[in-house]
Structures are given as C-alpha cells and as structure tokens.
Known about the structure:
Elements: H1 5-18, E1 42-46, H2 50-55, E2 65-68, E3 74-75, E4 81-83, E5 88-89, E6 92-98, E7 114-121, E8 124-125, H3 126-130, H4 138-141, E9 148-156, H5 157-160, E10 167-172, E11 175-181, H6 189-197, E12 207-209, E13 231-236, E14 240-248
Amino acid sequence: MFAAWPALLAAAARLEREGPPSDAPALDLGALERPVPVPSQAFGIGLNYADHAGESAMALPDRPLVFPKFSSSIAGPNEAVATRSDALDWEAELVVVIGTDCYEVDAADALAVIAGYTVGQDLSDRVVQFEGGANPQFGLGKSAPGFGPVGPWVVSADELGAAGRLDIRCDVDGVTKQASNTRHLIFDVPTLVEYLSYRVRLHAGDLIFTGTPAGVGFSRTPAEWLRPGSRIDTTISGIGTLITRVTGR
Length: 249
C-alpha cells in the first residue's frame, strides 16, 4: 500500500475537492483495521523523552537507543490485547510510517521519505523486559502479540510536517497517566530517520515508535499495571485517538 502512497494522496486530494460519491458508505470506526498491516520492520526508540529517562533512573542517551519491535506485535485499533502478564505497562507514542524504500537519508531530506504518522502504544511486559537484570530485553518485552497497536489511521506528512509540536496523552480507564508534547523528544523525527537509514535500509510501511514521555506504570509508587478489562485511550493532536482494550488469556 505505501509503495503506492503518492497515488493514494492524489486520490484523497481529489475526494477532498469533489466530495465522496453519493453512494459511498459512512465511516464505521468499528470496522477500521491496521493502517499498516504487516510492516517489514518496526523500530522502537528508548528513553527519547528526558522526563521518562529520569523516572526510569537511566542516563540520557547521547544517540538514539534503538530496539526491534517485532512485526508480529503489530495490532489495529479494534484488536484487543490478550495477555497473561501481571506487569503489563502502557507507553503512548508517536509512530512514523516510512513511505518509500530508502537508505542513507539526511535529516534535511527526511520528510521526503515519510508517508505519515499514526498513534501507537509500545505495550511492555516489564517482567520479560527486565528479567535480564542489568541487560534488559527491550525487544522481547515489547513484542508479544498485540503489544504494538497502531491507528486509527495514518495522517500524511504534508499535513503534519516533522510532527514536532503535537500533544500526546494516555488515559487508562478514564484517568490521564501521560501528557506531553513531541517538542520534548530528545531526538526528533528527522534525526531518527537519518540515524536509522544510515545503518539499515528502510522500506515502505516500516514503523518507527519514537519513544514515550513520563507517566508509565512501573515508575509509579506503588507500580500500576494494566489488567483484563483495562481500556487505554491514546491521543495525539492532529492525528486522533487509538483505543486499546486488554483481555486475559
């Protein structure tokens, strides 16, 4: 789909000018599926907000801290997350969607290879993540099935630019847990695209989870965890709200 992104943008612009056909069905939010069905690669960026690094008692990174978020973890806006974890945590994140295959892209040219942005949760099983003690398993702790919900749609980069001033909020069961703005990213979106693309080839539809601000459950006293029945509302201004529900297994 994202290989044909320019054609899709042109079609969307035409619909905006002319309006939808008279027989077009109404938008059914409950029928929305994954905006990126199966990315070939999904990357997580750790400790990319200073306040989250602080609450995690970790030093600020001097370069992007990258880990794999395996594609089998990706879910859509209407998929429940089934888990047996007793330490499942939330992490609200802006997610970048790459629009074209690319390699060695300078930050100044990053917008040319970005299809757009969506809302994501980097759900984390803290037991699995930290069972290695001083050697945490970021990728494994964040890649169980359903641990990468994204949606509800992709907003194109021509609408949001570098996405550098977007409010981001996470509500759990109606209570706000995280509230920040993407201007607080340590490494902004163009920097992340440059850093990654100079090390690996990026493909159309790849995802970059850009990091989460302070307010996660494991840093609270006492720690707070998601439970079967929990509802997570993740909202980013200019994009929308991703609703994620947790069920037991």
